[in-house]
Amino acid sequence: MTAIRLDAVTVSLGGRPVVDGIDLDVAAGQWLAVIGPNGAGKTTLLRAIARLVPYSGSIELDGRETGAMSRAELSRLLAVVPQDPATPPWMTVGEYVLLGRTPHLGLLAKEGARDREAAARSLARLDLLGFAGRRLGTLSGGEKQRVVVARALAQQARIVLLDEPTASLDIGHQQQALDLLDLLRAESGLTLVAAMHDLTLAAQYADRMVLLDRGRVVADGSPLEVLTETVIARHYGATIDVLPVGERIAVVPRRGSSNT
Amino acid sequence: MAFLLLSLVVGVLAGPIDIGVGGILESVAARLRVPGVETPLSPTEEAILWEIRIPRVVLAALVGGMLALAGATYQGVFRNPLADPYLLGVAAGAGLGATIAISYLPDALRGQRALPAAAFAGGAVAVFLTYAVGRSARRERDAATLVLAGVTVAAFFTALQTFVQQRNSETLQQVYTWILGNIPSTGWSDVVLIVPYVAVATVVILALRRVVDVLNLGDDEAASLGVDVRRVRLALVVAATLGTAAAVAVSGLIGFVGIIVPHTIRLLSGVGYRALLPLSVIVGAGFLVLADVIARTALSPAEIPLGVVTAFLGAPFFALVLRSTRTGA
């Protein structure tokens, strides 16, 4: 089943196409990593899918055009974990995760028992039950990241977009966060689309990779197919070695051979 | 709540003519038609109580609650801790309206009706202009654009207001007094005038108080949580502005309440907007009633401008709160 379908999606910012005629089908339950050099259009592509920037072309979620949905409908299908989420320091973890229930509530409604239950479940899934009363201002970077994922989970959307979900985490917390997302995907059949910079990390988790360069898809396939020395050299201008690690691969830059 | 009740009681009791608690209670009971109770007050005292003091306290509560609520709303919606109710040009517009009314209207028309109406109209025009200028920004139509438009419009209206004021220097004193703010002793007419606006604004904002917490995450995140950001923000801003314009129309520019009250509550209790907004109404109302008591009794029979009292008392108090919560929030 197709969870996300993009047809000739173009986003222009300041008169320049940042995302340029992208066609893309993402199967339900897939983990798709969107990779590409800085300025390739990764974040903008995610923002278009979440209808946060104007675009031309067509974007369907579960076979329905996003442009025809209300904001709340769209947010019940799709949750976003932004790269740099706002975390008001005075807000408690419990209150923050409850905000994830917003698309299920009327504009004037209060959270009910079902919403509290959903929030509690998602706190429990992320091992945060003991944190419910803590203020966001007292959390570490890794804890905050988990809290933001918990909010997205409380939204109970089948599709989750993540923009650099591990950018500010150390390697231990990177692994923890991605393992957790992988587990949630397996358990709940989530479709994950993550923009990622760390190619080795992306290669460990994603079952499909799309490489963007200047707003276009220039490679699409398994990590093994996409992460080759020639492709990386052409689009990142980097000279690298691809090393096999078990069934996966690692990308290692070669010292002193950047083409500057 | 207790704070509000207490300050209301103090507000009703305080005044140049001493009316005892017992007398007031019996008079209230008599008005409520409690059987067997007759008011012990003389007709003059009755009039002071019911036509001057109680309406003035009610008016101060309405204005204070509204200003604090509008300030808290703006701070949440614009994600700016320094946002105050006058952010979008209400104050400058109302100031111009009032100055024109004071300077040009014939004395006969300048009575109680014309001044608030002119101030209200000026405030509304200014905010409408702010919105129009903000909308015309082609690029980012975000909250910051609207704030900048507000600054622009306020500067323009202030310039006009200063010009009119300088051309009519004989009314300087009157304009100046209005700008510093005070709660008028005009009986129930001003209360009746602003109650509808304040009530509508309060109901709209409190109904949307949960969404203010969502908006405070920023436009993108609020949108991806299913909120139609532009429409909800417009509703909140219109409500807060309308209520502020009504408050300003009767009381002039009372500074500081809209910033200090929400921040004091947040620093002391660390709550999110859904609790902060209703608390702001209560504390703002109580604070302004007390400030008004001081304004009319400290140098009695002269009155100190209310804006002077709120800032004179508010600033040191706020400094104290800031100091005592260094580690919190």
Globally, the shape of chain B reads: globular
Distance separating the two termini of chain A: 45 Å
Number of domains of chain B: 1
CATH architecture of chain B: Orthogonal Bundle
Strand residue percentage of chain B? under 5%
Instruction: Kindly report the CATH topology of the domain at 2-85 and 157-253 in chain A.
Output: Rossmann fold
| Main beta-sheet strand count, sense and barrel state of chain B | none
The CATH H-level homologous superfamily of chain B: ABC transporter involved in vitamin B12 uptake, BtuC
CATH topology type of chain B? ABC transporter involved in vitamin B12 uptake, BtuC
Radius of gyration of chain B from CA coordinates: 21 Å
Could you give the count of β-strands of chain A? Answer: 12
Inertia-based shape of chain A: globular
Largest interface: A-B, 34 and 23 residues
Helix fraction of chain B by DSSP (H/I, runs of at least 4):
over 70%
| Main β-sheet description of chain A | 6 strands, mixed
Chain-wise SSE layout:
The complex is a heterodimer of chains A (260) and B (329).
Chain A (H helix, E strand, L loop, with lengths): L1 E12 L2 E12 L3 E5 L6 H8 L6 E6 L2 E2 L5 H7 E4 L11 H6 L14 H13 L15 H14 L4 E5 L7 H18 L2 E5 L3 H7 L2 E6 L2 E6 L1 H4 L2 H8 L3 E6 L2 E6 L7
Parallel strand pairs in A: 3-8, 3-9, 6-7, 7-8
Antiparallel strand pairs in A: 1-2, 1-4, 4-5, 9-10, 11-12
Chain B lengths: L1 H12 L7 H11 L11 H35 L12 H15 L9 H23 L6 H25 L4 H9 L7 H20 L1 H7 L3 H6 L4 H23 L5 H13 L3 H25 L8 H19 L5
Helix pairs in contact in B: 1-3, 1-13, 3-8, 3-11, 3-12, 3-13, 4-5, 4-6, 4-7, 4-11, 5-6, 5-11, 8-11, 9-13, 12-13, 12-14, 13-14
Characterize the structure shown.
Chain A has 260 residues and is α/β, with parallel strands linked by helices. Chain A has a domain at 2-85 and 157-253: Rossmann fold (3-Layer(aba) Sandwich). Helices cover 33% and strands 29% of the residues of chain A. Chain A contains nine helices and twelve strands. Chain A has a six-stranded mixed sheet with strand order 6-7-8-3-9-10, sandwiched between helices. A four-stranded antiparallel sheet of chain A has the order 2-1-4-5, covered by helices on one side. In chain A, helix 4 (113-125) crosses helix 5 (141-154). The longest helix of chain A is centred in the C-terminal third of the chain and has 18 residues, at 171-188. Chain A is globular. With 329 residues, chain B is mostly helical. Chain B has a single domain (2-324), classed as Orthogonal Bundle (ABC transporter involved in vitamin B12 uptake, BtuC). Chain B has helices at 2-13, 21-31, 43-77, 90-104, 114-136, 143-167, 172-180, 188-207, 209-215, 219-224, 229-251, 257-269, 273-297, 306-324. In chain B, helix 3 crosses helix 12 (257-269) and helix 4 runs parallel beside helix 6 (143-167). Chain B is globular. The two termini of chain B are 23 Å apart. The mean pLDDT of chain B is 83. The interface between A and B is medium-sized, with 34 and 23 residues.
